[in-house]
Amino acid sequence: MPALDINPNQADLVQALASGAASGEAGPLRRLDTHMSHVFLGVEHVYKLKRAIRHPFVDFSTLEKRQAACLEELRLNRRLAPTLYEAVLPACRASDGQIRLGGEGAILDYVVIMRRFADGALLDEIARAGALTEDQVLEAIDIIARFHAGLAPHFETGHAADYQRTLAGLRQTEAAGAAKLGLRPPSRALFARLSQALTQQSPLIEARRRQGWVREGHGDLHLRNICIFEGHVTPFDALEFDPALSITDVLYDLAFLLMDLRVRGLGGLAELAAARYWAVSGQEPVEGLLAVFMALRATVRMAVAMEAGDLTTAALYRRFVQDALQAPSPPTKAIASAPSFGPNP
Question: Does 306 share its domain with 165?
Fold first, then answer.
């Protein structure tokens, strides 16, 4: 995405990271901006600085909040990518005025230190090149299923009403985006259908919550957040800023990846992935619920695109939601040779 405005209080640190002075890297470093971070790409390492921002969905406005977010990012991502995420270091201004990571002096901010993976290693990039393989998808699913199985259950959240609240928020997001464009909300009927589908799935959602399948998952598990690192499929960049978005039914976690595959026209790989997950996770296949969760994930993308004024992308995800709600997916055949990780005891 294009370069974003820099908070004046972070300008010196951004310059020091970009030049390589703060890290000791030979600069200049390539800078990438996301909605929440300034990211600097070194030769072997990546440096992530939380932007000093405050939005309705995230608050990084103080040093203490950015430190907490950095530490949470490290904790969450070391579960799946322990060698990719190395440390959180303070960025300090020394008595000579120089800014260094992990040095002495007044702490200006905190930075997440990661190993750098190769260019073109994102599964998103591999898929766009038409090179995503069945083996890569199956390895990803085995990792995700093992990850989900080892997580502690959360019984106090993940109610059916929580997904309805998510949907209501998305309805407001789309309406606000449409209003900025002078349009009527284009998906009113679709929101009503998805709400009805969630209501129909409520008994199963509640049963799975009581069974312990609501867990602190990845939260943002799509192809742009999975890479090939040290020869292995590696999910990274877990959602760290709102536990309400990451502590969900594990199928809602999985649904983002399956939806992403389907939207890209990789339905065969999505079917393979779903079949593998049922085979290795120890969970009873519930295709209808999975379809509704995929529709909800696509609705997130649809609403965000509408808010950004991207009508083409919004229409793409709207069509996916329509198709997902037509009928439950056909049963998938379990892969007999897959190992079983089973539920967390």
Answer: yes
Same domain, residue pair 143 and 252: yes
What is the residue-wise DSSP string for 40-75? EE-SSEEEEEE---EETTEE--SHHHHHHHHHHHHH
Task: Write out the two tokens for 326.
Answer: 């037509």
8 Å CB contact between 84 and 229? yes
What is the overall mean pLDDT for the chain?
A: 92
Letter for the amino acid at 326? Q
Please give the full DSSP string across 210-266, using - where no structure is assigned: HHT-EEE--S--SGGGEEEETTEEEE-----S-HHHHEEEHHHHHHHHHHHHHHTT-
Same-domain check for residues 138 and 89:
no
Residues 85 and 159 in one domain: no
Kindly state whether residues 308 and 174 are assigned to the same domain. Answer: yes
Going from the C-alpha of 226 to that of each of 97, 123, 294, the distances in angstroms are 39, 6, 18
Quick check: 1 pLDDT over 80? Answer: no
Distance CA 49, CA 8 (A): 14
Using DSSP's 3-state secondary structure scheme, residue 293 falls into helix
CA 284 from centroid of its chain's CA atoms: 25
Please report whether residue 320 resides in a domain: yes
Residue range 214-262, pLDDT digits in tens: 999 999 999 999 999 999 999 999 999 899 899 999 999 999 999 999 9
Query: Does one domain contain both 180 and 294?
Result: yes
Structure tokens at 240: 């760290």
CA distance 144 to 159: 22
Chain position carrying tokens 């005025």:
97
**Residue 81 DSSP class:** -
Task: Return d(Cα 1, Cα 35) in angstroms, integer.
Answer: 9
* Whether residue 314 sits in one domain with residue 167: yes
Domain of 106?
8-115
* Direct distance between the N- and C-terminal alpha carbons of the chain, in angstroms, rounded to an integer: 43
> Is residue 42 one of the residues assigned to a domain?
yes
Cα–Cα distance for residue pair 19/14, rounded to 1 Å: 9
CATH of residue 167's domain is: 3.90.1200.10
Task: Please give the Cα distance from 92 to 100 (Å, whole number).
Answer: 6
